[in-house]
Amino acid sequence: MNGYFLRMNPLNDCVNQHLSIILGVYYLFTTMKKFVLLICCLAVISFLSSCQEDEPSLPLVLTITPSGSNAIPPGKTLLFTANADVSWEVPDETGGTITDGGVYVAPNKIGTFTILATSKEDPTIRATSRVYVTQSHEMFSKIKRGGYVMHFRHAEANVGQDKLTTHGQWWKTCRSDSARQISEQGLEDVKKIGQVLRGLNVPIDSALTSEFCRCKMSADTMGLDIPTTKVRSLTYFAYGETYRHERLHKLINEQKVGVNHNMMFVSHSYAQGSTYPPINQGDMDIFLPNGNGGEPTYVGRISLGAFLELYRD
After folding, report:
1. 281: closest CA among 180, 172, 170?
2. Which residue, among 177, 232, 222, 224, has the nearest Cα to 205 in the 3D structure?
3. Span 64-133: which CATH code?
4. 97 partner at 20 to 30 Å CA-CA among 43, 145, 243, 297?
């Protein structure tokens, strides 16, 4: 009987041996007292548990802290740690230094640099983090946390001119014979702005833009994968300039932003009589909405130049 059972079940040797023991227990059950059966059953349980295979160990997933990317000023130190024994490296020889203990010292120059951690146990396992060294580190750190309206002036637009025609809604057209359009340089600039914002993991819920094509195109070309909507309140001239400043304030204050949430506006230069400093094409001003009405808080500016300094192929 025992031999027949084993031939019919292609099991591993360990289990076959234990099945033989079970058959032996069956024999004992029919011939011996119950207390002997109990002892034999305990022995079988012990034997069978020994057949369990060891769980395979999972491969190491190397993580470093702080994760993601960070904006710091030139010469600043930043401590990195890892969940394993690693060696630290700054691949760019001009990108600063890092000690065996993970203390990174930024260079005294602006730029974007990579921190590389390599597992000492398995050198094929690596993790990286980027550091954005910039004089605008405070502004970048703020928008990384969220809670602001990021107000851009559209990128360079010197193709054609605004004709101020009376036919149709001329300001909405993307034709240079009716309205001024974004240039090739402007398109390149907003692509680089978008790359920096994505690299820093700046949270942006969506974008509101002027109805002018150059504003909508500036937002869309950043490649942020967010919805963009054209609104009258950000459109200059076409609906009158008298209350454009107040319309901007009202729209900023209506935005529901908080931790991990920003809104982006893309519009024009400020209306006449504005108290804000003149804004150049491609610059970004940061505002804190005032839920009680009145003027929102002007926080500061990140210039187009500050974005371009951090762009990295």
Report:
1. 180
2. 224
3. 2.60.40.1380
4. 145
